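Standup notes
- DV: blocked on the single-chain target, sequence here:
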Amino acid sequence: MSVKVEPLPKFDGVYQVILEDGSRRIASKNLAPGRDVYGERLIRHKDAEYRVWDPYRSKIAAAILKGLKDLPIKAGFKVLYLGAASGTTASHVSDIVGEEGHVFCIEFAPRPLKELIDNVCKYRPNMSPILADARFPEKYANLVEKVDMIYCDIAQPEQAQILANNAKIFLKKGGWIMLAIKARSIDVTKEPDEVYKREIAILEKNGFQIHQVIHLEPYDKDHAMILAQYLPK
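- DV (later): unblocked, structure below
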């Protein structure tokens, strides 16, 4: 049996790969053909190359497989990515937004940012690596445009408030956010569900309408993905 690739229904820019043994994976079309980012499998199909998207390495992939209703990342979108690290997930976002879109990558730690630059951004002109602390968005306000979507995956105790502060500066009204909540990074003394509720309340107070909450087990323990729309009064 040869490998097959077909669009994943409902998710623009995301594909389903049916492997030789009949197993199924999700993938994105590689914007930098011939290059992998984190050891993922590259698959040639017809006139394109696809990168298998590992849900154990990427919380967006995990959310898709756990029943995400809509992925607010589309071709041509501008995305602010808070906590880009070495670019595992950010590179798939880059694939989806394509040459007409852009990903502004905020990362606080110099070492993963260097990996992001050397291994990813060097081959992808639609990505801008920015060494900065997401808690202080005003410090990189001159480097980031208005965006259609913010993705946040940071190990900070005030994740929702940090995201909200960035949204006030950068997110278009009606734009979307995805927040990967790491319950143990926020409060190790509380049950994860209690932490999720508190972070959701902060988002709602800051003008977000919650559309979906997805628990990411078994891919990520004590993690949830929040999908919300920015509708400030």
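- Follow-up: The CA atoms of residues 75 and 98 lie 6 Å apart.
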